[in-house]
Amino acid sequence: MRVKVIELMVAGVRRPREACLADPGITGTLSIGDIPIGTAEKRPLHAAQLWERWGTSAKRGLLPPLFDVQVLRITPRGLLLRGFQVDSRSPEAIAQHAQEWWAVPVDKPGGA
């Protein structure tokens, strides 16, 4: 499903409403499912990913995945997703933060 995603948190802290409303978001294809890499408990990771086509057969992630994702709300205007993102910008301090996405469906290019 093609959506525009607005991240509602930064480092686990909710962004101000005005900042979220002004955010243009990131448009891509949303998929929710299990990632087969698994965990220490030998269970797959349930995740939401926002991606785009890269070349003829590859996909490129547009945002870090939301792990242990939950769909909190589905309305005619969009979906509210909650999960955890891993912040690995600093190898010395890898962190996991709560994150919410507001995902608004968009039409495919060309109106199809």
Rg, Å, rounded: 15 Å
Shape: globular
Number of strands: 9
Low-confidence stretches: none
Neighbour order of strands in the largest sheet: 1-4-5-7-8-9
Describe it.
This protein has 112 residues and is mostly beta strands. The protein has one domain (2-105). Helix content is 5%, strand content 58%. The protein contains one helix and nine strands, in the order E-E-E-H-E-E-E-E-E-E. It has one helix at 17-22, and strands at 2-7, 9-10, 13-14, 26-35, 45-54, 58-61, 66-75, 78-87, 95-105. It has a six-stranded antiparallel beta barrel. A two-stranded antiparallel sheet has the order 2-3. The longest helix is centred in the N-terminal third of the chain and has 6 residues, at 17-22. The protein starts with a strand and ends in a 7-residue tail after the last strand.
